[in-house]
Amino acid sequence: MSNKYVVIDLETTGNAPKKGDKMIQFAAVVVENGEIIDQFSSLIQPNQSIPPFIEELTGLTDDMVKGAPTFDEIAPKVLKMLDGAYFVAHNVLFDLSFLQEELIDAGYNGFYGPVLDTVELARILLPSEDSYKLSDLANQFGLNHDRPHQADSDAYVTAELLLILEKKLKYLPVQTIKQLHKLSGGLKSDLDIYLDELIQWKEATLEALPDHLEIYQGIALRKAEQKSEKPTYVKQIDFPTMTEDKTALFKKAFPLFEIREGQFSMMDAVYAAFGNEQHSLIEAGTGVGKSLAYLIPSVMYAVQNNDRIVISTYTTQLQDQLLHKDLPLLKKMLPFSVEAVVLKGRSHYLSLQKFVASLNELDDNYDTNLTKMQILIWLTETATGDMDELNLSSGGMIYWNHIKNDETVFLTEKSWINKDFYYKARNQAQKADLIITNHSMLLTDLASDHSILPSYQHAIIDEGHHFVKAAGPHFGLSLDYLNVRLILSQIGTLEHRQLLFKLEKLLEETDVKDDSLLHSFEMNELMVELLFEMDEFFRLIGTVAKNRKKGKKGVNRLKIGLNQADQDSSQKLLVGKAERFYFLTKDAVEALGNRLNYLKKQVAQLHDKSRAFLEELTSSVEDLKLVMDSVKALFMTSPHEQVTWIEIDLRAMQNVTTVYSEPLNVASLLSERFFDRKRSIVLASATMTIKGSFSYMLKELGLKEEECKLVKIESPFDYDKQVKFIIPEDLPDIKAVPMEEYVASISEQIISIAEATKGRMLILFTSYEMLRDTHQLIKESGFLDDFAIFAQGISGGSRSRLTRNFQRFEKAILLGTSSFWEGVDIPGEDLSCLIIVRLPFSPPDDPMTEAKSKKIQAEGGSPFSQFALPEAVIRFKQGFGRLIRTKSDKGLIIVFDRRIVTTSYGKAFLQSVPAVKAEQKSINETIKLIDEWL
């Protein structure tokens, strides 16, 4: 098959052609027979000034377009190129609408041929990519994209991307292409026209299915790898105790390996903890190489003892690093095979049976159809069926809830069991030496009545300082407005034509003869009332939170404690509303449950489409039961030592409202349900101690010092030579001046320091409000207009995306809060200056902080020294560790908060970080030092 494609990219003065924005550059690349055969580009005279933002983005100036042709002069050439071709662009609706407007203004009819959008194509054909921005895709495929946001460069790269995507499409099995074709009618692209041609071409040729694929019940799937059975006998393996033996091991994977004594010490500590059946806390400083230091002894112990070790991480990023980076290295180092699997909660895995059933349902929802197409491609690639491999839109996530893996009642077809991703993962976990999971999954397993993980007695808890914080939600409850609304809207009313509508239609078809069931009208009225009461209930929760705002100005996100003992009038009203909502939910659950039980008896007469939607309804009713139980526990009981609070965004009050409840102290729960039941748990982290002591962490975890092995391993980095640590002399004390004055002062310092360091700066805040105000002042000053400034919650995107964008620009500044204090890894010259704006104490009115402080005080202790200070020091250590990530890194750490040197407790921070002299300097001295140091 042969098509002509014209790939077009435009640069414009803005994004609204109907409001007068004009083209300033046009570029087209012609593709035929799988090759680029022609190119054309031209600057365009827009007869208006180019805005400064567009100049900065594109590099195009008024002087550059001064002598350029107007669009009507090149329009005939453009139309000739487009004749008989597909119009292709990356985000096609923008370029096409702009071109149409310009063509009409020039007196032509416009373009009305077929179009293809490479963003849409990439989302479908590359379902696991992190980003679909052109520069990110170019980087992924090694395409030379040296001038992003210039039309000729963008058009050429888009053409190269199109060729890659077309090649992938042509290699897909015809069965998959036909299924894509059925779903493609509602896309932005005319992909249905292309796929129709492709099917005809495929059917006219003899297709051989690739070896790695199989067609099973009409779906193309990646074949499962045939693994040989694990040998029951393994020759004697000796753990390397001598330095030279360990070195020889590492040299198999790292020919230029340099000995790190700390890494070897940690290997010994982990192996000894397992062998002695003893719990252990290990603080391993940055650069020790802790992943391999615990993986090697873990797998050796597992193989020697025919046992399994669980490895738990806090973040999925570290999970992926272990699987894709560290385990391949481990396999090179060891003289035997290593069986390692990642195991996640059941809902992370796709239910093939549900997905296949849903493919037959006609749906005009764009996100649903696009997600179905993504999954069809993904099934030819995935070995795991794990949702985390997919890049789904928010609408795609809603669809995922219909096809996720869970217990089935109506879909009882056994033919999918052998292909089931979740069962496959569990079976692999039973045979594995190492099971890699995360704190959330491990804690869900602890809190659950039914075991999810295979039985184990030994575990590594990486990022162990997070284990207590991660445990709270798993022993607590939450009630989220968006989640409750989603569950109820999926069931809907008869008018909504969702699950309830389908249920009533099915009951009508089966000619119900059961007087115990509510009449269809009554069932509908119950759902109408329930939806109304849900909105009223959450509106009142928002009102209670707003009334307790306590005069906080400029604060949009609130955490408000909901103390059961404080029974003021608004809270009594809230409890009344909760009771009404609870009993209505209970009635709905019972009424829907009765209908489902009736239909279970008729299951043999139901066709597959009916069974699929009843499965979905069963899942929604189970979710509604959990909502009912949460409402009762949160508002209608008085649980002992629980902290309950409301979190709310006042800008979208009802939409962003959640009620949480967690145990005040999880130490006893962790001790009883975890540490007391396991032989050896090793917790590892770069931040376990305060002033060299593990006491705080032991207390938080519910462990006794005499029962644990405590190991502190220093970082191999020479901080004294790699870091300059500065506390400014000429900043006010944060507690001595109004917040506006403090923000103005630090903004001035940031501007001066940024100009001296030429960017490459990470600034850590403790509150979003201060970050936002500082960002605004810096932008308004105009002094840093030539810097790329990224701010969490303002610039948009996830933490990893903001970090990637920051690393792309030489003169870049990144402002972050909360999650940026840890887990951000920016090695080398991309980061040369770290600013910590404020010592990271939790706000005293944070509900959990307030409750813990009251408890400590009631017991005669000091809330500050026993809780607030240790927690802040741990977080400060995490922030401090962002700067130096390798032996060759160097840079500055500047702490704006002068309390670190003016208060007695400041020493706790200074004595808990690596030994480096803290120098107090004026801004002029600091600038001079930067010039000399960097």
Automatic annotation (TrEMBL):
Which keywords does this Swiss-Prot/TrEMBL entry list?
A: ATP-binding, Coiled coil, Exonuclease, Helicase, Hydrolase, Nuclease, Nucleotide-binding
Record flagged with keyword Transmembrane: no
Q: Does the keyword Coiled coil apply?
A: yes
Query: InterPro entries given for it?
Result: ATP-dep_Helicase_C, DinG, DinG/Rad3-like, DnaQ, Helic_SF1/SF2_ATP-bd_DinG/Rad3, Helicase_ATP-bd, Helicase_C-like, P-loop_NTPase
Q: Which CDD domains match?
A: DEDDh
| Pfam families named among the record's database cross-references | Helicase_C_2, RNase_T
Top-level division of the source organism's lineage: Bacteria
Offer an example of a GO molecular function term for this protein: 3'-5' exonuclease activity
Q: What is the E.C. number?
A: 3.1.-.-
Q: Name one GO biological process term.
A: DNA replication
**Could you tell me which SUPFAM superfamilies the record lists for this protein?**
P-loop containing nucleoside triphosphate hydrolases, Ribonuclease H-like
Pinpoint the Helicase C-terminal domain residues: 738-934
Helicase ATP-binding domain location, by residue? 249-510
Check the record and name the PROSITE patterns matching this protein.
Answer: HELICASE_ATP_BIND_2, HELICASE_CTER
Residues the record lists as binding ATP? A284, G285, T286, G287, V288, G289, K290, S291
**Ranges in coiled-coil conformation:** 589-634
The record's similarity note reads: Belongs to the helicase family. DinG subfamily. Type 2 sub-subfamily.
Q: Which HAMAP family match?
A: DinG_exonucl (MF_02206)
What's its job?
3'-5' exonuclease.
- Please identify the protein, giving its name as recorded: 3'-5' exonuclease DinG
Give the gene that encodes this protein: dinG
